[in-house]
Amino acid sequence: MTEQNALEPPLAEPEVTAFPEPERLYLHMPVDIRNVSLVVMAILASLFMLHWAKEVFVPFMLSVLFSYALSPPINWLESRHVPRWLSSAVLLVAIVAAILFTGYALRHQAAQLLVELPAAARKLGQVVKSQGGKSDSALETVQKAAAQLEQVARESGAPTTTNRGATRVVIETAQFNIKNYLWTGTMGLLALIGQTTVVLFLTYFLMLSGDTFRRKLVKLAGPNLSSKKITVQALHEIAEQIQRYLQVQVLTSVLVGVLTGLALVFLGLENAMVWGIVAAVLNLVPYLGGLVMAAASALVGFMQFGSINMALSVGGASVVIHTLVGNLVTPWLTSRTSRLSPVAVFLGLLAWGWLWGVWGLLLGVPILMIVKSVCDRIEDLKPIGEFLGS
Length: 390
Description:
Blueprint: H1 2-7, H2 33-52, H3 54-79, H4 84-105, H5 107-116, H6 118-132, H7 138-156, H8 178-209, H9 212-220, H10 225-267, H11 272-282, H12 288-305, H13 308-333, H14 342-356, H15 358-377, H16 382-388
Helix pairs in contact: 3-4, 3-8, 3-15, 4-8, 6-12, 9-10, 10-11, 10-13, 10-15, 11-12, 12-13, 14-15, 15-16
């Protein structure tokens, strides 16, 4: 047995088998450089056109939104055998008269508020200085050091005997001319009045036309019945979502204005009704409107009470109201299909605000809703609609 065991080959050690690496998966997405270049050029050209012709696009978009918002009462009056031209004219005149009457009724409070605004900076500086004590802050220390360095540089660069013939040049800033300021303000006011008139007339014509443009778009969709059906559904969805969005915005703005006015009256802030109307208007601008309202009301609260705690209370009340209404009431009133992704809304506001300024902040969300409705109905653009949706 011993010799037989000696003749047997030694047992081999078990081999350590390594786990095979998982097979890497690749997405086969053919990319045509020519098509991508054409898409990029088309996007850049569209952005340039939107920015260059914003004086035309902004009034047109405002008129389209107003016509969508006012079409339900116009259609109801038309079903009661009221001529469309008469109901449209009466409704626009009533809206303009209500806005003018509200501004006229609150003119004294608004003027008083504007007069008291310059005192806010002085009072705030006094409070900060009194709380800082006698010790200099870091900002004041840096400012003093910069002043000393500037004085040393000025002294070292003083003229000597080598540059006696040099002429010292002093640049004087232009003095403030009140005539130029008034002329610029007058021209801006005239431009605003002109744009408002254009918006009113264009809104009137759009309401007067009714469903004419929809019928023409359906007719141009093609002879195929399915294409016409899809076009009708898309137009109906766009109209329904825009009307729902505008109704929700008006309702939530009124709610925010009323709650803000009541909260500011409870806190004892003067001109609370004016700030309630300001809160209702700023609520039309997502995200930024609430922040601007909170900062402005906190500043006015500090002006009146002279206390930072009261200023924080006034600004905090505005933030709480905007947050509750935006996170509870608005999602409850908005349907699931018309909701947009918060990321898409934020990016859209940045883009349209860069293109059109304040008007872009107001029109950004409705434009995104129109784009989403169109993309959801076109097969090749469904990924864009999926990205914009919540």
